[in-house]
Design brief:
By secondary structure, the protein is an alpha+beta fold. Helix content is 50%, strand content 13%. The longest helix has 20 residues, at 434-453.
């Protein structure tokens, strides 16, 4: 059937003013059963909004805001006689609807993407993106033949069950950038868990199922992972709340995502294998290095998206679009960051430590004012940036103890000039308890004490003892924040400890006739101190010293521990 725009549009029932309160706009759209309406500002067409958008805005606390504040995507217009390809092009981007207009300028109707739903998405998806079929070759090149074949297996299973399946999310973005993607994310329109079970059996993979969320994880024998999720819709009842989830279409799943470059899919089932699905022009934004939210209320719905956006912006060297900055403004307007639990906030912030360049990600956070929601007293100045860069250089090179928590160390660097009360408040906001909270509160004092222990007169053994008795985070911060001589002393001490092989053991002390007891520790510590300070230079000298100490102990002569 050769459908035209006139066959799909609904009559124009409502025109909204940009300064009209959102609550009134929601009432008018509902009363007139209008799925979308144009927004006018001083006689000029500003854009389009949908009934679903304004209802969502009311739920999130924007009832008294103005309609113009959530209007984005520009003005998209089509003629009544246009075909589906023309409508498809007009709907590409974040604008949620198009206006149908006669050649002479009269407005005739509207078409909302969500209201039109899957009819357009199904019918012309492959046709509209036929030029993107080379992605089939990109899959084989980027993922390798074996992993690309896994996707074909998933597609065949989906087709046999009458389902649709797509590769989705960040892996598609990285595919277009020709970057490595170790893990794969699949979205299934239908029963995602059922598809995952059959795919897991076909691949011989270990499977973990989360029935509550209709998701599954497949751990592949050769390494790597496949996450399989059922396509879904999400509704946020209030800012920062976990969404109410229901099964949805592939289009629903695409539209619920955060930013355009994360909202692309690659079709895997049927003849359309390798077809790019890009309803929001994510590929265009990726080429232009633009970070654009899918809708103005994206960050108000889930403020953790702002931290994910900052990390991605730093990693890919993106530029935030105007819509992204406006979304942050709206997020702060309803204090969505304040409604976010400290646990979720710190978990998302902690992921900065896993970035290739954590210092750049923190620069993005500072630029977007995302440090303030964490708590008071955080500063990311040039000195902090240098310290973070040194810290992660030390971690990568192995010069800093890998047991130190990098996320906590970032917080310590950012709060190094904060007052004690501010650090206590920071710990409470982020739900830190116990030793972690205490360390954050008192680390400046601990750091000063540790730095004093590395003074010029300190012996190698006393430095080693100080390093071992100090929390690894404090040692790491001394290495990152201290002068060069501090780094040199810590490096030398660690090198000594790694090279030193204890020749004399407790078993040897037993063979020398020393009964088990506290004396073992006293003698072994004495030997260690002598070896580190150069008083004992080889294994033979250490053994001789051990014999002397044991004889003195057995003869009840007191062991001199004053130098220990």
């Amino acid at each position: 059937m050769n459908l035209r725009v006139r066959d799909l549009m609904e009559p124009l029932r409502v025109i909204l003013g940009a300064r009209e309160p959102i609550c009134e706009a929601a009432l008018r759209l509902t009363a007139h059963r209008a799925s979308a309406a144009p927004v006018m500002s001083r006689g000029r067409l500003l854009g389009m909004v949908t009934r679903e958008q304004v209802q969502n805005a009311v739920r999130l606390g924007f009832a008294e805001a103005r309609v113009g504040e959530i209007t984005c995507g520009g003005v998209r217009q089509v003629r009544p006689g246009s075909g589906l390809p023309g409508l498809k092009r007009a709907l590409a981007g974040i604008a949620p609807a198009v206006l149908v207009r006669q050649p002479r300028g009269a407005y005739r109707g509207v078409i909302a993407r969500a209201h039109l739903g899957e009819r357009l998405f199904r019918t012309h998806r492959a046709e509209a993106h036929r030029g993107d079929r080379p992605l089939e070759r990109k899959l084989a090149i980027a993922l390798g033949h074996d992993r690309a074949e896994l996707l074909r297996v998933a597609g065949r299973i989906a087709r046999s069950r009458g389902m649709r399946v797509c590769l989705a999310g960040g892996v598609v973005r990285d595919l277009l950038l020709e970057r490595a993607a170790p893990d794969l994310d699949l979205v299934v329109e239908g029963d995602g868990v059922a598809l995952a079970r059959e795919l897991g059996r076909a691949l011989g993979a270990f499977m973990v199922v989360h029935e509550t969320f209709a998701t599954a994880r497949l751990d592949l024998k050769e390494g790597g992972r496949i996450d399989v999720a059922t396509a879904r819709r999400e509704v946020y009842e209030r800012p920062a709340a976990l969404p109410r989830v229901s099964a949805g279409s592939l289009l629903d799943d695409l539209l619920r995502r955060d930013i355009t470059i994360n909202s692309m899919m690659v079709r895997l089932d049927g003849a359309g294998f390798g077809t790019l699905i890009d309803e929001l022009n994510g590929r265009r934004d990726l080429r232009a290095r633009i970070l654009r939210v899918n809708n103005i209320l994206s960050f108000a719905e889930d403020p953790t998206r702002a931290y994910r956006a900052a990390r991605l912006g730093a990693r890919l060297k993106l530029k935030p679009a105007d819509e992204t900055m406006l979304s942050l403004k709206m997020c702060r307007r309803v204090d969505a960051f304040g409604a976010l639990s400290g646990t979720r906030l710190f978990r998302e912030f902690s992921r900065i430590a896993t970035e290739p360049d954590p210092a750049a990600a923190l620069s993005w956070c500072a630029r977007l004012h995302l440090l303030e929601p964490l708590g008071p007293g955080l500063r990311y100045d040039p000195a902090a940036r240098l310290a973070v860069s040194k810290l992660f250089a030390g971690l990568r090179s192995g010069r800093i103890d890998a047991s130190a928590d990098p996320a906590r160390m970032i917080l310590m660097i950012l709060s190094r000039r904060a007052a004690h009360a501010e650090r206590r408040s920071l710990a409470r906001r982020l739900k830190m308890t116990g030793a972690a909270a205490e360390m954050l509160a008192v680390f400046p004092r601990s750091l000063r004490r540790f730095l004093l222990s590395l003074s010029g007169s300190a012996s190698p053994s006393s430095i080693a003892r100080s390093i071992e008795r100090t929390p690894p985070e404090v040692v790491a911060l001394a290495w990152a924040l201290g002068p060069r001589r501090v780094r040199r002393r810590i490096d030398q001490s660690r090198s000594q400890l790694q090279k030193r092989r204890r020749w004399v053991t407790g078993e040897m002390l037993k063979e020398l006739g020393l009964p088990a007891g506290p004396a073992f520790r006293v003698i072994l510590d004495r030997l260690r101190k002598a070896r580190l300070d150069g008083l004992v230079r080889d294994d033979q000298a250490e053994a001789a010293m051990a014999r002397r100490l044991v004889r003195r102990r057995l003869g009840m002569a007191p062991v001199d521990t004053s130098r220990h």
